[in-house]
Amino acid sequence: MPFLNEEQHALAAKIARILTTCKETVAVCESSAGGLVSACLLSLPGSSAYFIGGGILYSYIIRKALVNLGKEDHARYGGSTPELITDIAKNFSNKVEATWIIGEGGAAGPAKSPYGHNAGYTALVVVGPVNRTRIIETGCAERTKNMSDFATGLLRLFLEVLDEHHPEIM
Predict the structure, then answer these.
(1) Does residue 120 surpass a pLDDT of 70?
(2) Given CA atoms 125, 10, 152, 157 in this order, what sign does their dihedral have?
(3) Beta bridge partners of 133
(4) Helices 60-67 and 82-93, interaxial angle, to 10°?
(5) Are 149 and 139 in contact (CB under 8 A)?
(6) 1 occurs within a structural domain
């Protein structure tokens, strides 16, 4: 069984074409998607032309170490809000040189997050020449389904931003 579905493959292929054509790069800071976003982008031959790398910033410990936002910061933001995930992405961009940073964080499930976000909630962000956020709420408590839906959602958002930023490339 493949680890990514047809939509994820198609989204990653379109993203790869735009980034390669425009000589742009992307880095990923993900959490509740568990590395699936990075895996989708890396699944295509030639990904080294556009994919800088990624991090699964899942725990407070790794977030504090890599992007200087720990448990106390999460409490101040009220958990995985678009504002927190944007700041994580911006801080991540200070560590890596990429045209775009994309990221997500939320509650894959089956339980609520410590901050009250229901399972199936995640905040998505794109940081770069264009900044964008979006919230997904699947209404589902199935962890692996949510992880896949979060990855698909972030790829959709990123492609939407790329299409708007590069309308000449369709």
Answers:
(1) yes
(2) positive
(3) 125
(4) 50
(5) no
(6) no
Amino acid sitting at position 149: D
Q: Which two tokens stand for residue 17?
A: 């074409």
Instruction: Look at the chain and report how many structural domains it folds into.
Output: 1
Cα–Cα distance between 146 and 113 in angstroms, integer? 14
- Round to whole Å and give the CA distance between 113 and 110: 9
Span 21-43, pLDDT tens digits: 999 999 999 999 999 999 999 99
Residue 30 contacts residue 104 (beta carbons within 8 Å): yes
Q: Are 6 and 35 in contact (CB under 8 A)?
A: no
In contact, 40 and 3? CB cutoff 8 Å: no
Residue 44 belongs to a domain: yes
Residues 6+ apart with CB under 8 A from 156: 11
* Token pair for 3: 């680890």
CA–CA distance, 90 with 41 (Å, rounded to integer): 20
In a domain, residue 77? The reply is yes
**Which range marks the domain in which residue 88 is found?**
6-165
Q: Where does the chain have alpha helices with state H?
A: 6-22, 36-42, 60-67, 71-77, 82-93, 143-165
